[in-house]
């Protein structure tokens, strides 16, 4: 858990900027350019010699800072005669130092069965939800429920609600009023169908919630455009987003700062999500090229295919640096809240078990 204080956060971010100024070339690299730009040759010679000696499980340990099974450290897990080069050890240590800790500190699983919990609800709810998502929702809802109780809030805006799994649990399982916003209309239609199934199921068993069904709105929220729905509300509501993709994370933060919302809870994802519309069409369908089998059996291509593991090795290092990039994004969003709402309590919490849901860092703020 990290409690955001402006001075400390700015210093942390300045260290990250300094680090990324040296490793931006690695963070910004693309798989498609590996051979085109000779990425492998950009690594220090000591790393070029050492990395090919690693096995797949060694790479997993290289990237894992939070597993209990890796508590003795990556270096100890290698159990090899060859010592990792100092520049690689320094890189990993610096990434660990600068990155947010993903180890679980809040476990909402114990709240899964409260006195009011209905077994039939759990059974039907699970029909449409995968185990990973169930774990996320149960932990997420546990925190939302506590924040609602502490702030006397009963109305929640779920931004990027998708099929409504989160809002359904909050509505029928926690007796909260939900307004769900998503830009894909068919998601809202499917969510309404699932809501009706659950409502009918619980009504037949006389176990229905006293809350009204979630309200689903099809709308595209844009950054720096504070929606009417939020501006017209009284002060007793919160804004949440579970794995809100791309720009939805900043949208949640901006709307929280510029509305009377009591609290915000946001778990972001897809930090570098790009608009790939038409990419495949332009790159493939529009190319009038016929590839024969012989043209794919050159010595150059054969050598590239044999070097496939070098691609894995190189982009494992990129994944390592990505921890720092994600930390910077989350710190920046948290600092934005603190700058605009100096009296607000802002913290970053690892909300889910990282071995089940690696994208587990939540920004939690209360006024």
UniProtKB/TrEMBL annotation:
State the organism of origin: Folsomia candida (Springtail)
- What is the top-level taxon of the source organism? Eukaryota
**Protein name stated in the entry:** Protein RRNAD1
Give start and end of each Methyltransferase domain.
Answer: 132-275
């Amino acid at each position: 858990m990290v409690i955001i204080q402006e001075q400390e956060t700015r210093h942390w971010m300045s260290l990250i900027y300094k680090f990324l100024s040296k490793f931006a070339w690695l963070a910004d690299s693309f798989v498609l350019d590996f051979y085109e730009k000779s990425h492998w040759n950009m690594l220090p010679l000591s790393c070029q010699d050492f990395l090919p000696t690693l096995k797949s499980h060694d790479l997993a340990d290289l990237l894992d800072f939070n597993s209990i099974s890796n508590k003795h450290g990556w270096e100890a897990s290698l159990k090899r005669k060859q010592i990792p080069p100092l520049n690689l050890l320094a890189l990993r240590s610096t990434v660990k130092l600068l990155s947010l800790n993903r180890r679980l500190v809040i476990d909402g699983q114990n709240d899964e069965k409260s006195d009011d919990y209905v077994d039939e609800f759990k059974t039907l709810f699970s029909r449409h939800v995968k185990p990973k998502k169930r774990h996320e929702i149960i932990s997420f809802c546990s925190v939302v429920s506590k924040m609602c109780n502490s702030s006397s809030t009963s109305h929640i805006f779920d931004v990027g609600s998708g099929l409504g799994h989160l809002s359904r649990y909050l509505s029928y399982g926690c007796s909260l009023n939900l307004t769900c916003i998503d830009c894909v209309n068919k998601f809202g239609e499917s969510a309404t169908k699932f809501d009706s199934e659950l409502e009918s199921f619980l009504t037949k068993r006389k176990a229905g919630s006293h809350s009204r069904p979630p309200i689903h709105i099809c709308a595209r929220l844009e950054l720096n455009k504070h929606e009417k729905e939020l501006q017209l509300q009284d002060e007793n509501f919160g804004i949440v987003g579970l794995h809100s993709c791309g720009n939805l994370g900043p949208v949640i933060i901006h709307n929280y700062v510029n509305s009377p919302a009591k609290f915000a809870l946001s778990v972001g994802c897809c930090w570098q999500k790009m608009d790939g519309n038409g990419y495949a069409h332009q790159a493939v369908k529009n190319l009038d090229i016929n590839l024969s089998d012989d043209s794919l059996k050159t010595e150059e291509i054969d050598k590239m295919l044999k070097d496939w593991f070098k691609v894995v090795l190189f982009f494992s290092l990129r994944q390592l640096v990505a921890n720092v990039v994600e930390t910077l994004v989350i710190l920046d969003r948290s600092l934005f809240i603190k700058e605009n709402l100096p009296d607000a309590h802002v913290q970053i919490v690892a909300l889910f078990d990282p071995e089940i849901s690696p994208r587990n860092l939540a920004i939690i703020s209360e006024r």
